[in-house]
Amino acid sequence: MEIKVEPEKSQNHDEEKVPLLKDMPEQETDTRNPVQKAISQTFQSTAHLANLLPTGTVLAFQLLSPIFSNQGKCDPVSRFMTAGLVALCGASCFLQSFTDSFRDKKGNVCYGFATFRGLWVIDGSATLPPEEAAKYRLQFIDFLHSFMSILVFSAIALFDQNVVSCFYPTPSQEAQEILTAMPVGIGVFCSMLFVVFPTKRHGIGFPLSVN
């Protein structure tokens, strides 16, 4: 006598699989509003441009700008302090474009300023032979990079909403369009020039080479 057994176990097993399909994670969607996307894009643009400037100067500016500008709510004193901060950081980017470094016999990194005669070591801890110092002489590309550094820093300053709100608390529609488009244009233009005319210097605030 044959006994037929219905496949209850398989049905129960299939029913147990159904909740697992329901628990599958849904595809992530970008739920950010346009303002949040614009802020995120601003931070990304600032980070890319900051790679072209001395690290310490950019960090100092990003740290001090909210304090000096009172988070964009400036009075005459804070506006003067913010203008001084922008000018000081811009001058720092300009001057550090003329710095370079080398390693002495002990492997220590020495920094100096490039001159028309060679490299002037800042602390005087080491000296270079005349034929070696001649490799660090000022060139036209150094002045080009210093000028582009000022432009890139001005773009970073325009990306900073605290600085913009300090000097332009209620800009017109035309001024707002200029303040939005100008830093992007400056960043793209200077980035292209940095690629076309690269520098071999490794000055103060810039990454060091292996050699």
Can you walk me through this structure?
- The chain has helices at residues 8-22, 34-50, 55-68, 76-96, 130-133, 140-159, 161-167, 173-196, and strands at 99-103, 109-114, 119-121.
- By secondary structure, it is mainly alpha-helical.
- The chain has a three-stranded antiparallel sheet with strand order 1-2-3, with no helix packed on it.
- Strand 1 and strand 2 (109-114) form a beta hairpin.
Question: What are its keywords?
Answer:
single chain, 211 residues, mainly alpha, three-stranded antiparallel sheet, 3 strands, 58% helix
- Counting H and I runs of at least 4 residues, what is the number of helices? 8
Number of strands: 3
Largest sheet report? 3 strands, antiparallel
Low-confidence stretches: 8-22, 24-28
Radius of gyration: 28 Å
Beta-strand content: 5-15%
Give the SSE order as H and E letters: HHHHEEEHHHH
Strand-helix topology:
Elements: H1 8-22, H2 34-50, H3 55-68, H4 76-96, E1 99-103, E2 109-114, E3 119-121, H5 130-133, H6 140-159, H7 161-167, H8 173-196
Antiparallel strand pairs: 1-2, 2-3
Helix pairs in contact: 2-6, 3-4, 4-6, 6-8
